[in-house]
Every structure is written in structure tokens, then in C-alpha cells.
């Protein structure tokens, strides 16, 4: 590749990074991930949710080994970084030992701090130089980790179900999805037809009949003479239409 092409590619990359700096973090994360981790790293949506529930305040996140965790901190300050003494210990070479922190301040909300990290902390592509209040849907990057922030501070009671619906759910048989290697196995419920009729009766809809399996198409082989007759009839009809 000559120098001019390299320069053009660099300018394109610079413009792309200026508009979407979080892409570089994702690329670095994928570059350092093991091959077996790539599908999970691509598909997983990483997040931290701040929850305010009566007198309790905690974080929920899937940044720790890809599983959802509930994190309490008596002082309302959750640090994150490579160090084992953080509330969120994340092994990433682009993170400082103590990289950033989320703080909860009563009556004000959650705030993000950068702890003088080497690679910086960013919120919606802007560097964090002073504590900034977090809002619903903010996109954050700490080192090579990109995640979204959500906040839950209200709750409401859902209405009670009718007796018919409660009866339907009590008779249903939950089915667990198979592991990825067994995804081709059919998911059959022996009570499926009866439950479907019960459900449609409750919802006031007609019960859908199960369609029989489609029959395979029969392939008809024509002789050369038969093919010629078909073509003659086709072109003759085409001329009549014209």
C-alpha cells in the first residue's frame, strides 16, 4: 500500500474516531478477546443500573463475568478498575487500577468520577474531567469497556390477574430452552393443544388448528418431445397475448 493510500485511510479513521470514539474501545476489546469469547462479546449489551428502592441504594450490572450482579456499598461509592479492592473489578489492560467511580448523592442522583486514570473516562463521547451527573441511557467508556447507564427510582404495583388467567398459567408447563449445541431439538409440550384451546377460550379468540406438515414436491421428468410441446404452447400463448 503506497503512502497516499495510507494517508487517506488514516484521515478516514481519524474522522470516524472523532465522531464515534467508543468504536475504538470496542475494537480493542474484540482484539484482546479469545476466539470463544467473540460471539458473547459482540452480542452482549453491557450496562450498569442504579436502583433506588425505599432506603436501599445499589447497582445492578453485568460487567462482572457477564452475569447480573447486585452491588451494595454502604458509603454509596462504587469504584471500578483492575484492582481487587474495587466494587467492580474488571480485568482489562486499558483500565487503571482505580479508574473511575459512581457515587450516589441523596436527592441528587448518581454521578460519574474519573480517578485520574491513564486512558480516561468518557460519557456520551465527552471526557469526564469533573464529576458529572448520570442520566438514563448515558453511554460510558472506561478504558476499553463501553456500557450504558440506567436508573430505576420508581415502582408501581401491576393489576391483579383474573381467575381465568391465573388458572391458565397454573396449568401451563414451562419449557427451558436447550443449550446452544442442542438448539435443533424440537420443543414439544404434550399439553400444547389443550393449553392453546384454554388460552384462546379465555382471550375470546378462535382456536387455531395445527396445519399438517407440507408434502414434498414431486419432481416430474419430461422427455425432449414433451419439453418441446410445452415450449411451443408457451410461446404460442405469449404471441396471442401480444
Q: How much of the sequence is in beta strands? A: 25-35%
The run of helices and strands is: HHHEEEEEEEEEEEEHHH
CATH architecture type of the domain at 47-152? Sandwich
Runs with pLDDT <50, length 5+? 35-43, 182-190, 206-219
How do the strands line up in the largest sheet? 3-2-1-12-11-8-9
CATH class assignment of the domain at 47-152? Mainly Beta
Structural class: alpha+beta
Distance between the termini: 57 Å
Percent of residues in helices comes to 25-40%
Number of helices: 6
Question: Can you tell me the overall shape?
Answer: flat
CATH topology of the domain at 47-152: Tumour Suppressor Smad4
Summarize the main sheet.
Answer: 7 strands, mixed
Question: Can you walk through the features of this model?
Answer:
The protein has 242 residues and is an alpha+beta fold. The protein has six helices and twelve strands. A seven-stranded mixed sheet has the order 3-2-1-12-11-8-9. It has a five-stranded mixed sheet with strand order 5-4-6-7-10, with no helix packed on it. The radius of gyration is 30 Å and the shape is flat.
Amino acid at each position: 500500500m503506497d503512502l497516499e493510500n495510507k494517508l487517506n485511510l488514516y484521515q478516514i479513521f481519524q474522522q470516524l474516531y472523532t465522531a464515534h470514539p467508543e468504536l475504538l474501545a470496542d475494537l480493542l476489546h474484540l482484539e484482546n478477546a479469545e476466539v470463544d469469547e467473540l460471539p458473547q462479546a459482540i452480542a452482549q449489551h453491557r450496562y450498569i443500573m442504579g436502583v433506588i428502592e425505599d432506603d436501599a441504594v445499589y447497582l445492578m450490572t453485568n460487567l462482572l463475568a457477564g452475569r447480573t450482579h447486585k452491588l451494595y456499598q454502604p458509603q454509596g461509592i462504587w469504584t471500578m478498575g483492575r484492582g481487587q479492592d474495587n466494587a467492580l473489578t474488571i480485568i482489562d489492560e486499558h483500565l487503571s487500577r482505580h479508574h473511575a467511580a459512581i457515587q450516589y448523592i441523596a436527592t441528587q442522583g448518581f454521578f460519574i468520577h474519573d480517578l485520574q486514570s491513564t486512558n480516561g473516562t468518557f460519557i456520551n463521547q465527552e471526557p469526564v474531567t469533573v464529576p458529572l451527573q448520570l442520566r438514563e441511557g448515558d453511554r460510558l467508556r472506561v478504558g476499553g469497556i463501553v456500557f450504558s447507564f440506567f436508573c430505576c427510582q420508581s415502582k408501581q404495583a401491576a393489576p391483579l390477574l383474573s381467575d381465568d388467567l391465573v388458572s391458565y398459567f397454573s396449568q401451563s408447563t414451562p419449557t427451558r430452552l436447550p443449550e446452544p449445541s442442542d438448539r435443533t431439538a424440537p420443543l414439544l409440550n404434550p399439553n400444547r393443544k389443550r393449553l392453546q384451546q384454554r388460552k384462546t377460550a379465555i382471550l375470546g379468540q378462535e382456536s387455531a388448528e395445527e396445519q399438517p406438515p407440507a408434502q414434498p414436491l414431486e419432481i416430474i421428468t419430461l422427455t425432449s418431445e414433451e419439453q418441446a410441446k410445452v415450449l411451443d404452447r408457451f410461446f404460442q400463448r405469449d404471441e396471442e397475448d401480444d
